[in-house]
Write a structure and sequence with these properties.
With about 350 residues, the protein is an alpha+beta fold. The protein is built from eight helices and 18 strands. It folds into two domains: about 220 residues, Aminopeptidase, CATH 3.40.630; about 100 residues, OB fold (Dihydrolipoamide Acetyltransferase, E2P) (Beta Barrel), CATH 2.40.50. It binds zinc ion.
Length: about 350
């Protein structure tokens, strides 16, 4: 879709070279007050792609809101063509409660495209989908790890779709997880509706983490540069690897964990990733990696029961050794290494003495 020089969204016309804040009513409160999503549109004078960046579809995953705020505040790039739609908080009702879910306890990101005569969540999803998502050519939907977990930044995308694969790569993220996303997710349903959509997973819930904001700004810059919408380049990743499958490595005993790896680390098969200790410091069990790969996520809560997730390990297409060498040789000044160091402080990594 090539937009005319004026761009219409949610019934509002944005003129060429205009930056405009727009509100759309998506629900009403118990007291009958309108519930609105506020967003900002940058419309250039030259036709080009329409790109949406969205945050907080899960109301407590606010790193995306922080990244979008930084795009607006820093004005670090200027559009030479196309239109940018910035939606810092999609699930405004969950956000009000610091909650992932909607007030009817549903997960908004399982209800797209939604129905106008359905549940509260379904109606909300439908209005957002029809009035905003369908007006876009590309979407970057930003999430964070679930409660008590953190994610090393990774892009999730259906790489079987060439346009999406190219878009996913253009962000300049080291790790790309190849999957379609769950049924009813914005990503899967937008792709079905012809809008190439990818997801950026980064950091923790209930936080706007400075290093994630810095990384996210670079990701969006890379995407817009890749589409020819801005002159500013994103970043060259330290490496780029596709994760073909991932597993949660789980605790086998109740107690406190000593972590031996951090998000973004590349591990060998059989490497100790955590040791389960009793509360009095006795060693119970060493948890090891079932295969070599990259740590894409982990728990930040070291108190575990048997079966609780410890690390989210990704298996790399083409093997992990190439990446291990690159990561081990990387300068501490690179964004990748600053990220790894920063996220490590959340989990207190200790060396295992063998
Ligand atoms: Zn999420």
């Amino acid at each position: 879709m090539t937009p005319p020089r004026a761009f219409v969204i949610a019934g509002v016309t944005i003129k060429p070279n205009e930056v405009r804040n727009v509100s759309i009513e998506v629900a009403q409160t118990y007291t009958g007050q309108p519930v609105t999503i506020r967003f900002q549109v940058w419309n250039s004078a030259v036709p080009g792609p329409v790109v949406m960046v969205s945050g907080a579809i899960h109301g407590d995953e606010i790193n995306g809101s922080g990244i979008i705020r930084e795009i607006i505040r820093s004005k670090s790039f200027k559009l030479k063509c196309g239109t940018l739609v910035l939606v810092p908080v999609v699930n405004v009702l969950g956000f009000e409660q610091h909650n992932r879910y909607m007030p009817d306890r549903r997960d908004l990101n399982r209800f797209f495209p939604g129905k106008l005569d359905g549940s509260l969540t379904s109606r909300f999803a439908r209005t957002f989908f029809d009035e905003i998502v369908r007006k876009c050519d590309y979407v970057i939907d930003i999430h964070s790890a679930a409660w008590t977990r953190t994610n090393f930044p990774n892009v999730r995308a259906d790489l079987g779709h060439p346009t999406i694969a190219k878009f996913a790569s253009s962000l300049g993220c080291e790790i790309i997880v190849n999957d379609k996303g769950p049924k009813g997710s914005l990503r899967q349903e937008a792709v079905k509706a012809g809008v190439p959509t990818i997801l950026l997973e980064a950091g923790e819930v209930n936080k706007v983490e400075p290093i994630i904001v810095e990384f996210g700004l670079r990701m969006v810059t890379g995407a817009l540069f890749g589409l020819g919408m801005i002159d500013k380049k994103g970043r060259d990743p330290l490496y780029q690897a596709t994760v073909r499958r991932s597993v949660w490595v789980r605790a086998t005993a109740g107690g406190l964990l000593d972590y031996h790896v951090a998000p973004g680390d590349v591990v060998e098969k059989g490497q100790a990733v955590a040791t389960s200790m009793t509360l009095l410091g006795e060693e119970q069990h060493v948890i090891t990696a079932p295969f070599g790969g990259v740590v894409i996520g982990m728990t930040t809560l070291p108190a575990v029961m048997p079966g609780d997730p410890v690390i989210h390990l990704g298996q790399i297409v083409g093997g992990y050794r190439r990446i291990m060498k690159i990561v081990n040789a990387a300068s501490s000044k690179t964004l990748h290494e600053r990220l790894r160091t920063d996220l490590q402080t959340n989990v207190v990594v200790v060396e295992r003495e063998d």
